[in-house]
Design goal:
single chain; mainly alpha; MetI-like fold; 2 domains; transmembrane; transmembrane helix; transport
Length: about 290
């Protein structure tokens, strides 16, 4: 039986998808429809510029979700690559990555993101880079604790004893052990990314505004001055932010986000298996050629 919380999440997703399928992106203004009343064609009315509030809500929610997923994935991928490099060359951790991560952890991530946007501009990719620089250190420190725990296990010591390289050990033992931690970091970090994107949008830095219209935060900033004339124009973007945070906070293993992350992991494992088979086949072929 569906719980009350899951029912609200399903209703929120359904409401957003219906708006995207029904309405066009709110990238144009219609001053003749300014502050229009609630009708069948405008279920939540219009804002001061005549844009449909339902369309603003739906496309603002979708744009926030579209940019939050790759931002979190790139952050975890960047942290994992740093962990791989540090595990392959241990001296880099003591002299390079650990001091740098300590500095990034001590500085508020939002401040780092704001400085990145100020330095690089307001392009869409800059938001992803800003979120990556603001959050990578926390993911790196969490992964390092799991790597230290796994590095002293018996199968890692046995692999090292039989001559396996550190890259091979990381790929076959360390990373699979750290994958559950990556799933937790992915699911628990998405709500924070949503709030960061909403704050950037409130400050006027929106992601994909040319295609999807203004972001949820920008809608709040624009509608707060005429809340009595169009209350839904202020309430709906707040519902969008809260709904996204609630929908992405699902921590069960059968959630859509976890299933998507598992698919990526299994594809990675299949690629590594095929790659090792190709290497072993080429080694056998070269050995046979040298024998004859």
């Amino acid at each position: 039986m569906i719980s009350f919380g899951n029912g609200l999440r399903i209703f929120f997703v359904f409401l957003t998808l219906i708006g995207v399928l029904w309405k066009n992106p709110p990238t144009e203004v219609f001053l003749e429809d300014s502050f229009c009343s609630v009708t069948w064609s405008h279920p939540f009315g219009c804002d001061r510029l005549g844009r449909d509030v339902y369309s603003l809500f739906s496309y603002g929610t979708i744009s926030t979700l579209i940019f939050s997923l790759p931002s979190r994935l790139f952050t975890l991928a960047f942290s994992s690559l740093i962990c791989l490099f540090q595990y392959s060359f241990p001296f880099t951790g003591r002299w390079i990555f650990t001091p740098i991560s300590s500095v990034f952890v001590s500085v508020p991530s939002l401040l780092i993101a704001l400085l990145t946007v100020y330095a690089l501009g307001q392009e869409s990719y800059v938001l992803i880079v800003a979120i990556l620089l603001g959050d990578w250190a926390f993911s790196y420190e969490t992964l390092q604790s799991k790597i230290r725990e796994t590095d002293g296990s018996g199968f890692v010591l046995a692999s090292s004893f039989f001559g396996a390289s550190r890259v091979n050990i990381f790929q076959n033992h360390i990373f699979p052990s750290a994958f559950p931690v990556l799933k937790v970091l992915f699911t628990t970090g998405l709500p924070g990314v949503v709030m960061t994107l909403a704050l950037f949008s409130y400050l006027g830095v929106s992601a994909g505004s040319d295609w999807f219209g203004p972001g949820l935060g920008e809608q709040i900033s624009f509608a707060r001055d005429y809340v009595y004339s169009a209350p839904f124009a202020l309430a709906m973007p707040i519902v969008g932010i809260v709904g996204l945070v609630a929908a992405l906070s699902v921590k069960k293993n059968d959630s859509i986000i976890c299933i998507y992350f598992n698919i990526i992991y299994f594809e990675y494992r299949n690629f590594c298996t095929r790659y090792r088979q190709i290497l072993s086949f080429s080694g056998i072929w070269n050995a046979r050629k040298s024998h004859f």
